[in-house]
Amino acid sequence: MIGLRDFSIKNKLVLMQVLTCVLVLGLCFAAFVITDINGYKGRKVASTISFAQVIGSNSISAIQFLDNEAAEKTLFDLQEVETDVVNASIVDSRGKIFAAYTRPNQTTHVFKPPFRNRHWFDDQYLYVYKNIVDQQGQIFGTVCLQVELSQLEAIKKQKFEIAFVLLFVGIALAFLIAYLNQRYISAPILNLVNVMKQIRENSDYSRHVDVIGKDEISILSSEFNNLMDEVANSHRKKDEFIGIASHELKTPLTSVKLYLDALSKMKHEPLVHTFILKSKDGVKKLHNLILDLLDVSKIESGQLQLNHKDLSIDDLIDECIQDAQMNIVNHTILREGTKCDKIIHGDRDRLEQVLINLLSNAAKYSPNGTSIAVKTVTSDNDITVSVTDSGIGIAGSEHKKIFGRFYRAKDSNSVISGFGLGLYICSQIIKRHKGKIGVDSQEGKGSTFYFTLPLNGEQKLS
To answer: Which keywords accompany this UniProt record (predicted)?
Structure first.
């Protein structure tokens, strides 16, 4: 069931203003109709009492002389003067009917005591009792009238029709005004949300929200911009630190690597030789990490340069498979399908870095003894290179996130080392080749990483 909290701010604002308008107009129209009906009833009571008073004044002589016929004639003349009277009676001072009148084709109504000055309404009629009093104040009887409220229903219908039309017009105008007005509130909020989504997806902390006006939303947007400036400044300082630290570490690490290479060529006891080899492996991993950090620093600072040349994609793939197979001894790397025999325009070293990284990841996350397949598919405008493994797979919710900087899949094996830089660097290299990179994967069913490069030869240095 959809609740009010599930509505957007835009719809809530429109709904609140329309409901407020309906409530206010409804109350105004109800007061208008009720006032008009009560006014009609008041006028009807006043005219009927005056009419009963006239009848009483004309009937005093008839009551004094017990002239019933004269009294009935007075009542009979009602149909020519007041057509709304249905039943009328003159009751003497003892409470007995002295004269009576019933409009033709109507049911006779019997008036009941007490016979004193009063009036009341029921669904269709007004009842008026008016005492017959002479100038000295002596009461001779009572005039009783049953009056049909024939105009009341017509008045109600007319007023309700007018109220309905005005209410409909009011709701339409309220909706139009509310729709135009909500844009001043919801549009800046939605704009802020869109900018936040773009920052989350692209990690572009330089994005700002347009600040218009001085209301609370403008203050919120301004503070958001200030926060993004601080975040961007923090990231810039972090990138500067990574770049400086990587450069400072690279020089002594190169010296250590050279000394270890020299030691490995000397004769040592087997245990010492093993220690030297393990040290070399550790230095190699640290060296690769420093290279990745330097690449990240270049990417973030816009200093990653590409050396574009024409190259054979088949030769590049074959060489990468041969180089990777020398280091990946527990998996077999296979070239599937036919060769594409295509020439592309790109940076050979950087594309080799991408393919080697994908092959290394495929081996890292796949069981020993399984194979890794490399396949190419061409179209008129581009070529797609894919690397398929039989590994642990990646959840669908992680497919876009894993190409982010320093991001590792939540369900990846914590024993497997890594800083979440490889795929980020690959995505940036492919992006600067005007290509696309992605993954097709399900948990427990392996993964296929692929990248697509254009064949039109219109790429430019990024």
So the answer is: Kinase, Membrane, Phosphoprotein, Transferase, Transmembrane, Transmembrane helix, Two-component regulatory system
Residue 132 covered by a domain:
yes
Confidence of residue 316 (pLDDT cuts 50, 70, 90): very high
Burial of 423 (0-12, 13-18, 19+ CB in 10 A): buried
Q: Which helix (H) or strand (E) holds 346?
A: strand 343-346
Q: CATH number of the domain that 411 lies in?
A: 3.30.565.10
Is pLDDT above 50 for 462? no
Asked if residue 446 and residue 315 are part of one domain, the reply reads yes
Mean pLDDT for 37-52 is: 90
Q: What is the mean pLDDT of residues 257-282?
A: 74
Largest Cα–Cα distance in the chain?
158
447: which strand partners? Answer: 441
How many domains would you assign to the chain?
A: 3
Number of Cβ within 10 Å of residue 216's Cβ equals 9
The answer to whether residues 322 and 360 belong to one domain is yes
DSSP 362-389: HHHTS-TT-EEEEEEEE-SSEEEEEEE-
Residue carrying structure tokens 């009783």: 144
pLDDT score of 460 more than 70: no
> Distance between CA atoms of 258 and 274, rounded to whole angstroms?
17
Question: Are 32 and 48 members of one domain?
Answer: yes
**Long-range CB pairs of 121-127, under 8 A, 24+ apart, other chains included:** 121/41, 121/149, 124/148, 124/149, 125/86, 125/149, 126/41, 126/44, 126/45, 126/48
Supply the DSSP symbol for 136: T
The CATH number of the domain where 252 resides is what? Answer: 1.10.287.130
206 assigned to some structural domain: no
Identify the pLDDT of residue 46.
93
Same domain for 313 and 341? yes
pTM of full prediction above 0.70: no
- pLDDT over 80 (residue 105): yes
pLDDT of residue 458: 45
Q: Is residue 186 left, alpha or beta, with left meaning phi > 0 and alpha meaning psi from -120 to 50?
A: alpha
Instruction: Assess whether 267 and 330 both reside in one domain.
Output: no
Q: Is residue 226 part of a domain?
A: yes
**What are the residues whose beta carbons fall under 8 Å from the beta carbon of 45, sequence distance 6 or more?**
119, 126, 128
Query: Where does a domain end: 268, 301, 334?
Result: 301
Q: Are residues 256 and 333 in the same domain?
A: no
Structural domain of 124: 4-156
Contact call for residues 324 and 273 (beta carbons, < 8 A): no
Q: Are 128 and 48 in contact (CB under 8 A)?
A: yes
| Whether residue 321 sits in one domain with residue 257 | no
Q: State the angle between helix axes of 216-264 and 150-202 in degrees (0 to 180), rounded to the nearest 10.
A: 20
Least confident of 219-223, 272-276, 383-387: 272-276
Lowest-pLDDT range of 157-161, 278-282, 409-413: 409-413
Are 278 and 356 members of one domain?
no
